[in-house]
Amino acid sequence: MSGTLSEAQFISQCRSLVELSEKIHDGWELRHNLGDVFIVKKCKIPFSEDLQANIISSSEEEEKGEEGGVGVMVQEEDDSCVPSSTSMLTVEYHVVYSPAYQVPTLYCNAWHDTGALLTTEEMWCFAQPSAAQDKYSYVTQVDHPLLGRPFYQLHPCHTEQLMGQVLGTNTHKYLVSWLSSFGKDVRLSLSNEYGFL
Amino acid sequence: MANDREVLREIWEGRLPIKFSIADEDKGEMLTEKDPYHILVPRMTYLPLLPVKKHFESAIPATDTDNMPTELWYSCKDIPLKWQIPIGVLYDLVGGDQLPWEIKIRITEFPTEKLQRLGTNIEDMVRSSFIHNVKEAGYMKHRGTVMNHLKPEQHNQLWRGLHRDKFDDFWSINHRLMEHIDNAPYRCIPFRIYTDMHERYIQRLFKPMTEDDKLTTLGQLMKQFLPDSVVEVGDSDDPDILKSYEVAAGKRIKIQGIETPLNTPIQWLSEHLSHADNFLYIVVSDFEQLAT
Question: What pLDDT digit, counting tens, does each position of B135-152 carry?
Answer without folding.
Answer: 999 999 998 788 778 898
